[in-house]
Design brief:
- Helices cover 31% and strands 25% of the residues.
- A hairpin with a 5-residue loop joins strand 9 and strand 10.
- Helix 1 packs across helix 7 and helix 3 packs antiparallel against helix 7.
- The longest helix is centred in the last third of the chain and has 24 residues.
- The protein has eight helices and twelve strands.
- The strands form two sheets. A seven-stranded mixed β-sheet has the order 1-2-3-7-6-5-4, sandwiched between helices.
- By secondary structure, the chain is an alpha+beta fold.
- The structure holds biotinyl-5-AMP (BT5).
- Biotinyl-5-AMP (BT5) binds next to helix 2, strand 3, strand 6 and strand 7.
């Protein structure tokens, strides 16, 4: 079955390649485009067994089974969004991948749309209180025990939110919770430029972290701030969750309190109304109506 792009153009891969300023990510045969796939994350993880090199980018115009966390769905409008996965082999912990990818999305939005986005713990990118992008990090290990990670990123780029909502059959209507870059910046956005910028930001932070682990500074070189500390601080600074009264849904249980801080591992420190400080490693944060 052909891809029904409903009058919109598919990704222009040549334009993307012309604009790519990365060293490895998506360069040459590390860029794979498919008009439609089940899920770029699933495909990238399958490809990891044949092509384990870091920086392989899988791109699509439409997913038939886009994945969110814990079995949830990621909805897209064919031909309008950014839907990609990057194969990585981090020497560092996956929580830092959540940080560098969400920061890269915030930075690309600022560059391309001149709009300030923020991060909702742990991995949603919001404009105002509406979700514009989601991130799904999945990991596995190869036969030598080394980690393979797939960083999946979905960004609502063009079209209005009503159109996006039409593509979903979700209990919570996306019209109430989501937005698109076109809606917030008032004009259509080049997906090719956005992807080029996004990959550049992710590659820069990724290699800085890889090098921090493999290299000690040579004698006589200036000792700079370690990249991991800078990234943690920037991520913390972009977390719109901090200081807010929140609820955290963890399966069937709900915790509430004030999001006081995050620790070095990205865990959320929640001050419960009883005064107790609890560390949250997973869950869905909601902001009750103010
Ligand atoms: C995420 O999960 O936000 C991760 C989304 C990752 C999507 C990318 S696309 C490329 C790659 N390939 C994949 O198959 N996935 C990745 P989570 O935090 O669990 O949020 C999922 C929830 O967000 C859903 O239950 C909906 O409520 C909401 N949602 C779904 N689609 C949305 C959209 N397009 N915009 C805003 N919210 C959406």
């Amino acid at each position: 079955m052909g891809l029904d792009l409903q009058g919109v153009s598919p990704l222009d891969i040549e334009a993307l390649q012309r604009n790519l300023q990365t060293q490895f990510f998506g360069i040459g045969d590390r860029l794979l485009y498919f008009p439609t796939v089940e899920s770029t994350n699933t495909l990238a993880m399958q490809l990891a067994y044949e092509r384990p090199e870091e920086g392989l980018v899988v791109l699509t115009d439409s997913q038939t089974a886009g994945k969110g966390r814990r079995g949830r769905r990621w909805v897209d409008m064919p031909g309008r969004n950014v839907l990609l996965s990057i194969l990585l082999r981090p020497l560092f912990s996956p929580y830092m991948l959540v940080m560098i990818t969400s920061l890269a999305v915030v930075d690309a939005i600022a560059d391309i749309c001149q709009v300030a986005a923020s991060i909702k713990w742990p991995n949603d990118v919001l404009v105002g209180d509406r979700k514009v992008a989601g991130i799904l990090i999945e990991t596995s290990h190869d036969s030598s025990g080394r980690m393979v990670a797939i960083a999946g990123i979905g960004v609502n780029v063009n079209g209005g939110i009503e159109e996006l909502a039409e593509h979903s059959a979700m209990q919570v209507p996306l019209t109430a919770t989501a937005t698109t870059l076109e809606s917030v910046c008032g004009h259509t956005v080049s997906r090719e430029l956005f992807i080029a910028r996004l990959l550049q930001y992710i590659e820069k932070s990724y290699f800085a972290l890889q090098q921090e682990i493999t290299k000690l500074p040579a004698v006589g070189t200036e000792i700079t701030e370690p990249s991991s500390r800078m990234i943690r601080e920037r991520w913390r600074g972009q977390l719109a969750t901090l200081g807010r009264t929140i609820t955290v849904q963890q399966g069937n249980s709900v915790l509430s309190g004030i999001a006081e801080d995050v620790d070095d591992s990205g865990e959320l420190l929640l001050r419960r109304h009883s005064g107790e400080l609890v560390s949250i490693t997973w869950g869905d944060v909601e902001y009750p109506a103010r």
